[in-house]
């Protein structure tokens, strides 16, 4: 073992230093702002619809513009950030989404909102690739899962903060101020990032002991696996199918729940806050419990295959009761059913992401996640356009909740048929004979 490894393994955090956790806090803040920015439109949508005069189909197109750009961004962001480095790449991403968030306040038409949402999607797609790369730069392997869990919790925090903060700003200063304020949050984070971020080797506030701790792992092989080779394997298609079939449900929750609660229960802008907070707090709990459940099954002696799919089944069953939400005659019954479904989705998502490390070597996981994220965003585009058309023609949310309630069980069936034993994919390049 090298001296760096020995230092990293034996020294307590108090002696090693804690600066890397400040970097993690920056990532948490960025992810929280990321979700606040994308949630502003969903919270204000029922009231902007009257203000701007769009119909359900046009709102569907606005959401689709974001999803299309997000899909494109997921394909490109990783390569751009790898080429430019984390500091510059992350800065460009948040600069783009900050300007895009602010530009919403100047939009006065459907086309204007579509353009603003498209640029926002391009910028926001860079958040997770940049944050994951930052964690890889600043944390040894044994701490990366925890650090990733911390910054990823910002997605739920943002979904909780937005319905509390945005209505207050909009009522006090108008809806345009809500977009200006959240865009300013992104800009403030950007300034902080540029002033404070350096690589560990170049950071003046990092102690030698903490740097040794961060670099205590053996060098990681830099192996790029082409997508064409990954997509030859049914393990990849299992993950892609799961994301394509279930991610659109989460996008529906983000962008249409405020409209549903307003249309069905007459909630005012300020009245949306508490129900939406309750729903997304349940989602946060579900995210934790879904991951815990699979681990609990494994500790009971279940195989990884049985434990992972057992946890996914439990989460999928939590979503099924949402089929009754569209006809619930009580607001809080609907909130409970939808909250249970969002909890099920987040628990499902935690296990679906873990499928990649169950079936692929570490150096291929990021590529597989990127492909699956693209598939999920494409599915989100399709559901956004379909939802707008359906609500415009029928006004009924029932078919959408029926689709949501069945999507996870169907996705689990597809996953099981493609990978009945979760056997690892063999990605080795073919060798030529002599």
Structure commentary:
The chain has 434 residues and is mainly α. Helices cover 79% and strands 0% of the residues. The longest helix is centred in the N-terminal third of the chain and has 34 residues, at 19-52.
Q: N-to-C SSE series?
A: HHHHHHHHHHHHHHHHHH
Sheet with the most strands, sense and barrel status? none
Count of discrete alpha- or pi-helical segments spanning 4 or more residues: 18
Radius of gyration from the alpha-carbon trace, in angstroms? 22 Å
What topology does this entry show?
Elements (H helix, E strand, L loop, with lengths): L2 H8 L2 H4 L2 H34 L3 H29 L1 H18 L6 H15 L2 H12 L2 H12 L1 H20 L1 H22 L11 H7 L12 H4 L3 H32 L7 H27 L4 H16 L11 H29 L2 H32 L4 H21 L16
Can I get a quick summary?
By secondary structure, this protein is an all-alpha fold.
Question: What are the key terms here?
Answer:
434 residues; mainly alpha; Growth Hormone, Chain: A; 2 domains; 18 helices; 0% strand; globular; disordered N terminus; membrane; MFS; transmembrane
């Amino acid at each position: 073992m090298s001296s760096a490894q020995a230092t990293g393994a034996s020294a307590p955090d108090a002696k090693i230093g804690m600066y890397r956790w400040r970097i993690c806090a920056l990532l948490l803040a960025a992810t929280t702002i990321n979700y606040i920015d994308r949630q502003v439109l969903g919270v204000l949508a029922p009231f902007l619809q009257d203000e701007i005069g769009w119909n359900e189909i046009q709102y569907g197109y606005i959401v689709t513009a974001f999803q299309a750009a997000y899909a494109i961004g997921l394909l490109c962001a990783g390569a751009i950030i790898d080429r430019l480095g984390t500091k510059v790449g992350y800065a460009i991403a948040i600069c783009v989404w900050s300007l895009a968030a602010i530009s919403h306040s100047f939009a006065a038409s459907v086309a204007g909102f579509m353009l603003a949402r498209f640029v926002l999607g391009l910028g926001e797609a860079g958040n997770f690739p940049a944050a994951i790369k930052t964690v890889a730069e600043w944390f040894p392997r044994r701490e990366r899962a925890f650090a990733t869990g911390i910054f990823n919790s910002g997605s739920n925090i943002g979904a909780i903060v937005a319905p509390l903060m945005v209505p207050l700003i909009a009522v006090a200063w108008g809806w345009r101020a809500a977009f200006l304020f959240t865009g300013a949050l992104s800009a403030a984070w950007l300034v902080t990032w540029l002033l404070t971020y350096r690589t560990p080797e170049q950071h003046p506030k990092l102690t030698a002991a903490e740097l040794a701790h961060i670099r205590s792992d053996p060098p990681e092989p830099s192996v790029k696996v082409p997508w064409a080779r990954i997509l030859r394997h049914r393990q990849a298609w299992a993950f892609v199918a799961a994301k394509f079939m279930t991610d659109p449900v989460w996008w529906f929750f983000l962008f249409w729940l405020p409209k549903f609660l307003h249309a069905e229960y007459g909630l005012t802008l300020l009245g949306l806050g508490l129900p939406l907070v309750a729903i997304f707090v349940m989602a946060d709990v579900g995210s934790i419990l879904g991951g815990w459940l699979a681990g609990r099954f494994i500790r009971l002696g279940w195989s990884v295959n049985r434990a992972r799919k057992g946890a996914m089944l439990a989460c999928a069953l939590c979503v099924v009761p949402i089929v009754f939400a569209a006809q619930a005659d009580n607001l809080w019954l609907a909130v409970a059913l939808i909250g249970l479904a969002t909890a099920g989705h987040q628990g499902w998502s935690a296990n679906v992401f873990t499928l990649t490390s169950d079936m692929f070597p570490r150096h291929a996981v990021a590529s597989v996640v990127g492909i699956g994220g693209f598939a999920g965003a494409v599915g989100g585009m399709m559901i956004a356009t379909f939802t707008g058309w359906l609500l415009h023609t029928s006004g009924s949310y029932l078919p959408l909740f029926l689709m949501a309630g069945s999507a996870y069980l169907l996705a689990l069936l597809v996953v099981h048929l493609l990978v009945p034993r979760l056997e690892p994919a063999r990605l080795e390049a073919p060798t030529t004979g002599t």
